[in-house]
Amino acid sequence: MRRIAILLLLLISLPFSVAQGKRPFTFEDMMKLKRINEPIVSPDGKWVIFSAVHVDLAQNTKIPHIWIVPIAGGESRQLTSDAGEDRPRFSPDGKWVAYISPKEGGSQIWLIGFDTATGSFTGEPRRLTSISTEADGETWSPDGKNLIFVSKVYPDCPDDACNKQRDEERAKFKVQARIYTTLFYRHWNTYFDGKRSHIFVVSVDGGAARDLTPGDYETPQFTVGGADGYDVSPDGKEVAYSSNHDPVPAASTNNEIFIVPITGGEARKISNSPGSDETPRYSPDGKWIAWRMQKRAGYESDRFRLVIYDRKSGEIKNLTEDFDRWVESYVWAADSSKIYFSAELEGESPLFVVLVKPESRFLTNDYGLAPPDVPMLNLRRIAGGYNDNLAISPDGITLLFTRMSAQYPNEIYKIAMKDAEPVTHMNDAILSQVTMTPIESFWFTGAHGDKVQGFMVKPPNFDPGKKYALKYVVHGGPQVPIGDEWSYRWNMELFAASGYVVIELNFHGSPGYGQKFIEDISGDWGGAPFEDLMKGLDYAEQKYPFIDKDRECALGASYGGWMLDWMEGHTTRFKCMVSHDGMSNTEAAYGETEELWFPEWEFKGTPWTNREMYRKWSPILYATSFRTPMLVIHGQKDYRLDLAEGFEMFTTLQRLNVPSKMLYFPDEGHWVLKPQNSQLWYKTVGDWVDSYIGPGAKR
Questions:
Q1: Contact at 8 Å (CB) between 441 and 504?
Q2: For residue 259, is it within any domain?
């Protein structure tokens, strides 16, 4: 488990009876926390720069600013406080910092001088880009001569003047209708406007930016967070990137890795997997390009392997084929001899290191798996915890990363030849005033006789002699695990703070337990996972006598929302339910969603080739068994699981006279992101649950 070296966080994990004087965690506390992004190390190895998002609940805003902290640890200082500065990046010589800011209208790249002696900005910032379609995702070329960035442009426009003219003409149109002839006409939370993301290069001296990836393709591919889909070679002459060139990208996961000269020219594909290839990274010595690879076409939850491409011979080597976990965030060692990465494992995301040369071996194969299930000796685990956003110091001695738990959001940590220790303490002041209980893990026998892991958070001032109502939370994905991690959208500590026990499970389909465990959900959505959830609840009720079996409410979002809709027709053991962005009609949802590879894989075809499978797992077809009061939540801009799915569920409940309520967000997508909307979400969910199983609820 986590080895935290500061007394404050240890105190936070103590029961309320020990940490007297503290109060339960509140939504307002959560909004005051700084949301820290990835660490960026200065070239001299003295400083770590990062952006942190400040939330103003009253103004309903979330604005990032740039902060800095000595890599040795110490006080973090805010360096900017303007219009919202994000994504700071040091120049290779350490004399400049590039960042993204909307100052003067529209996001552009800005440069400002940096004094490494004091860790301060010098002089006035200079705007580098003025592209009408805005700039984002800036990255220095290692020779310091150029920056590459991403901008959404009309693929048939030869220059920025064309893009600007077309946008201006469009703004004048009285008719806003659009005509579509291909799929992906909408994605995630936006409709396709004719623009594609392209990678551009601009000289550090300024001037017009050049499009390195022309054509009618998204470059790099859209991702919800995560690492950049592009990188620059150490000599500054080449760019590697991911892009999907399949004829119907809405039904394809076949992202490929391409390389192109930074001066422009024809791109060349270097990957060969029918599955997704993404997040390329050059080795510091320039000999290799690493990326994450999936083998199977159309399966977004295939295992991510870590492969390296020999730039001289073209050979691709798989470094983690025998490691039955997903490779997530990764970074090259400074000497190019190994790669550090994080991987989901039993409710955590530990750090691992793998050697690049196959003849190299560690003395032991400590994976932290029980028992070790692979024979490789070129890979070992180096730290536990829930870690992400890896970076390495130039001397190769210090590994930096972000770490979170259920009790605290991201802070920057480091490992320098010893246990992990914090570098930043951005949220200590707020967290020191509140009490939280540490997450507890338990195991039980679920579907197929497999061991399934659950997690529990107890309320503040917990008394084992009392009875507590239960919030039973079902995670989304479905191939997205939960564990000892922080969430602003579904915060277990905040759910528990009002006097509830909170339980979540990593049912079949959850990563961190081997690829077979993940794949057991496909084609069996309401089978093994539902069995896990029922058996897990049975186990918890028997194991923990403080759980009041007569006061239980189930809550879930995305796949969890589908599962709540499914539970509505298959069990009456809950007093209430909350279904957020669920799927009530699987047949209709196929035609409403955008990433078609997902339902086609999960339901083994299309509704016209395998209608039986879609109907088998369609919750709405079991409406005659709906009995449990349900709160339905959905966002207008949710194009993953369309608003119609929420409306259909609510309408059906209402016509069946099942107590129900609908919370509709006209300005949110799959996630509720705006601070005041989030406040309303937590209040509405809390009030609904309280009304059925809270202290004042009718029995």
A1: no
A2: no
